[in-house]
Amino acid sequence: MTENELRKALHVNRPLPPSGFEERSDRQLKRLTAKEEKNMKKLSTGVLVFVLLLILTMAAAVAEGLFPWTRGLEDRLQVTEEIKDAYKEEELFDEPQLSVTQNGVTVTLDQCIVDTHAAYIAFRVQGYAPELGKQPAFDGTDVDLVDAEDKGASGWGSSFFDGLVTGPDGRGMYPDGRVPEDFGKLPYANENGDLLYVISMRADGEAFSYVGKKIHVTLKDLGVYANKWGDVDVAAEGTWEFEWTLKGTDKRLELNDLNLPIGENGSVLTAVRLSPIHVRLEMNVPRHPEADPDEFDLYAPYFRGVVLKDGTEYDLISDGGGGGYLDETGEAYRAMSALSRVIEPDQVAALLFTDLPSENRVEVKLP
Fold first, then answer.
1. What 3-state class would DSSP assign to 106?
2. Is the peptide bond before 301 cis (omega within 30 degrees of 0)?
3. Which tens digits make up the pLDDT trace of 102-155?
C-alpha cells in the first residue's frame, strides 16, 4: 500500500508521522472511555528506586554510545548557533526556569520557543527514571491560555522527547546524526538522568498570536504508558502547576498575489506566510469530481520543507498540520503547519511539497 493509499484509507489530510512517533492531545484523551481504577505504583523507597533505575537507564545510554540529547528543546528543534545568532535581538528563545517539586520529582519550565502561530514549551523532569523501553508520560496535562479571547483557535499536543529528530532522508536519528540500534528501547534521559517533556502548540486564527499571552499549564501524575490506548501506570503522584507570560517574536515573511504552479494536478500557490516555526499557505486546488466528496482535499499538495538561499534543504519538517477548502464549492484552499525545526524566513528560497495524487516531490521557487 502506498502512502497516499494509506492516507485515503485513514481519511487523513496530512503526511504520515515518522515511524515511532506518538503524541497525545486533549481531544484524544477526551475520546478515551472511562478507565478502570489502576493499581498505583508507590515510591515508598523513592530515592533508592530512582537511583537504581537511573543507573540502569544510564547504562543503557552508554551502551548506545552517547546520550540521546544534551541541549533540551534546542536539540528537539535542531537549533544551530547560526540560528541563535540570527535571533539574538528577538525574544524567540526564553528560559523561564520555574520549578515545582512534588514527591521527590522536580519539574522545571526550562525553555520556550514561540512565534505568533506556533509555540514549543519544554519541561525538564528530574527525580524519575522510567525502565528502558518504557515511554514516560504524565497521566494528565492541561493547557490554558488564561486571557485569550479566541482560545478555540489554538490546539496542542505533548510527549516526552525521545531524542529523535528527522534526518535528511526522513529517518529518525539523534541530533548528532547517530541512528539508534533499537527504536523500541530508547533511553529518553540525558546524562544527568533528566527527562524532557515538550508541549507543542499551533494556532489557526488569522489575527491570533501566542506572543504576550498568559498561559497556565498543569501536569498531573508521572509514570509510563501501560498500553497503546494511552493508560498510564503512575509511579509518582503529584500536581505540577505553572503560570507565566509567553515571550516570542512576530518576525515573518509574507508573500501575496503569487501565481506559482505546484506539481501536475493544477494546484497553484497564491500566498505564503513563513515564521520561525510555522507556515501558512494559500492555494487554489482544483476539485476532482471522480473522487468521493469527503476526499476532495486528498488531492491538495502538502507542505514538507524548505530550501534556503545557500542551497541547504530542510525536508520533512512539517508537523503534519491541517488544511481545507475555504468554502463548499470554490478552489481556495488554506494549509497550516508548525515546523519541527527553527528557520530564518527571509533565508528561504523555495518550498517543498508532495504533489498528489502522483506523490512526487515538487520544489516551488519563491520570488
1. strand
2. no
3. 999 999 999 999 999 999 999 999 999 898 888 999 999 999 999 878 777 888
Q: Which three cell numbers stand for residue 266?
A: 493544477
Give the up-direction half-sphere exposure of residue 142: CA atoms within 13 A in the CB hemisphere.
11
Q: What is the CB neighbour count within 10 angstroms for residue 169? A: 8
Grid cell of 49 as nine digits: 528506586
In terms of phi and psi (left: phi > 0; alpha: psi -120 to 50; beta: otherwise), the region of 155 is beta
Q: Compute how many other C-beta atoms are within 10 angstroms of the C-beta atom of residue 312.
A: 11
List the beta strands (DSSP E) in 115-266: 118-126, 136-145, 154-160, 165-166, 172-173, 195-203, 214-225, 232-245, 253-255, 260-262
DSSP bridge pairs for 108: 99, 124
Instruction: State the pairing for strand pair 214-225/136-145.
Output: antiparallel
Torsion sign across C-alpha atoms 164, 170, 176, 177: positive
Q: How many CB atoms lie within 10 A of CB 314?
A: 20
pLDDT digits (tens, 9 = 90+) for 164-190: 888 876 778 888 888 888 887 788 888
pTM for this entry: 0.79
Q: Going by C-beta distance under 8 Å and a sequence separation of 6 or more, which residues neighbour residue 30?
A: none
Q: CB–CB of 108/97 below 8 Å?
A: yes
The helix (H) or strand (E) run that includes residue 76 is helix 73-76
Lowest mean pLDDT among 152-156, 203-207, 327-331, 334-338: 203-207
Measured distance CA(119)–CA(138) in Å, rounded: 20
